[in-house]
């Protein structure tokens, strides 16, 4: 594995952010993990510094996860963007895929999160 | 008195959110179109009839109720304004000739829809918490919104006690835009169950973050 | 026996859980399981083991599950055969009962299931549903069983959302229409020991209900179509009614009047005529026990009983409207109704009035003219007679005594006065046609023409010629002396305007429905069509005085006489081809 990565978690649920952060840190302790509660804040943070990963919830007040994900994909094409949502309707999954986003179904579990990042990192290497 | 920290409140909302997300996926598959969901809202009320989630308390609705009775107990309801429920059934059964009210078989179909949705919802919560939730068979009811749940009014407590909220109501609205169908899912839990749920959530958080 | 494992009887007949009874229910089941370790599921199927079934003691509450009453009040509770009783009851149940264990294999399969599926319990116990039915089992059922066993989720599978779940045979009476039994399925978690979740499946045959639902739906569709059709035709009828210009009302037996269209509403409404309903009620043949009072006479424009009813509506918001009232009737639902149609006849009334005025003016001016003609001719006669007498005296006394020129002048004066005398006489005759007519009587035309021929022969000035009459000239109604004048004029005209050497006048008659046409034809000089109308005008002459004698009043007189008889006169002619005058005389003079 190469150098430590940076991740921005965008979710209005503190609980969800807490879990995902914990799961990532237990497997990748060196990584930087930032949090944003909605799209606007996420945009500002993304403009301040580069992130390797964006993990975005779908159902949020304001811009939804697909809208934000689409913007991020355009503005930061180098970054990997994943939609992490309880809304697992096929339609949402298809839209995420069309925008070049990954899809992770909620609830987040240690296994799921580890598997996702490991696979991603391997693909990079 | 209900005393939930922001995180606990957030966690319960997220749990329901996950459940309803699954439910919406089931519904979406059944009607073959996208189901839009609102962000769940939590409110605490003293009586069910106090809940201001319902704009029109006298509106006649079709409701499918499943009671759950695991470590915590309460009711999960899938509610449609009556006209919307007719449209949903029509859409599901692809009937050309709608009747003015739900026939027995249509009622049963709607119960099954409720069953699938509420099971998806409750099942995913049970999955997250790692604890089975015992559920009842769905029950169908047509009534005015305000009568969806009986009012457990503390009969002999005329003093300050009566102002204490003791029901938690979780409300998620969903819409099928193509057919102009909307409805909502309600979770109603009493004080004891909320305490139990709170403990389970704490245990879960502690475990997950350890 | 049709169980593959020990099943505590209460599980299959668990009461429908409610908020109130659920905790108790679960508690009971779990306690039972805990106190009976022998009830752990065993993989071996088909082991009838009533002995190892937990005893259904009075304190366990099992009978309550079946009877739905307090266990302590249950009458039958012999401990030794309790469990077998429940199994027998389950087996004999009128619904299909299947129990599935954690391995997804069938533990119990009752007689109902055997019959409906054609699979004996012995053959299916220990197998999965998939083993038994193959791919026919839908995912929905698989998932429901999975969720039930792993999460304790109950499920229901409705016949409307799932066309056929288990391939079961329908009852013979439904076999034709339904290849498979229509099923309503309940899937419930059942726990017999603390850690053993079972899945109970009950199958109800709802083919009859589905059939009825389809019938209901079909009938509803037919009804809806009928309603649509009826509504459409009703809408059309209403639109026609509403857009009819006439006001239409309906009156029922008791005299209640209902306006049917917009115009009627208008007339009967607040801006309409407050009296109109009373007037209509008065006009109805039988208007209840108390006939309304007769409306004021200025509201009834016609005498009742003439067939045409006209009334005057006086709306609050405008001009009075004359209305023609038509009343018809129909019978509906055994009751007699009148339909009243009110037609606005303002325009017609206006025209009628105009015609009436014109007629009156015409009559007045005719009378004046007649009076003038009479007065003029009568009063002119006196001075004329004087002039005539003295010029004749001059002629007699001084003829040949003055010079030739004087004689010539005197001759012109005498001739002029004579002509003027004749004209005045003719004028008087003409004016008398209207004023001094005799009553009509039957006049035989044959006799009339005899007299005419005699008159012409006697008169010196009569033109020569041949008069030919058709045989069988009819009898006509009229004033004999006027008719004589009429036809004598025509005959003499005919002769006058012909070559005296071979002049011929023919008289014929032709019968029509309502009149006789008497025709007088000559072979004379004829009349240019452009004069066919004007020749009947008074003092109209087509020729100079020298050519043909006469005052030019003859045909005007003829026309006047014919008109007094209610008839017509016209001419057919062309120059040099002779002329035919047709006189049409009505047979019936009642209207004159």
Automatic annotation (TrEMBL), chain A:
PROSITE patterns: RESPONSE_REGULATORY. SMART domains: REC (SM00448). Residues 6-121 form the Response regulatory domain. The keyword Acyltransferase does not apply. It comes from the Bacteria. It comes from Thalassospira mesophila. The modification 4-aspartylphosphate is found at residue 57. Keywords: Phosphoprotein. InterPro entries: Bact_response_regulator, CheY-like_superfamily, Sig_transdc_resp-reg_receiver. This is Response regulator receiver protein. GO terms for biological process: phosphorelay signal transduction system.
TrEMBL record, chain B:
It comes from the Bacteria. Keywords: Chemotaxis, Hydrolase. GO terms for biological process: chemotaxis. One of its GO terms (molecular function) is hydrolase activity. Pfam families: CheC. Residues 8-43 form the CheC-like protein domain. This is Chemotaxis protein CheC. It comes from Thalassospira mesophila.
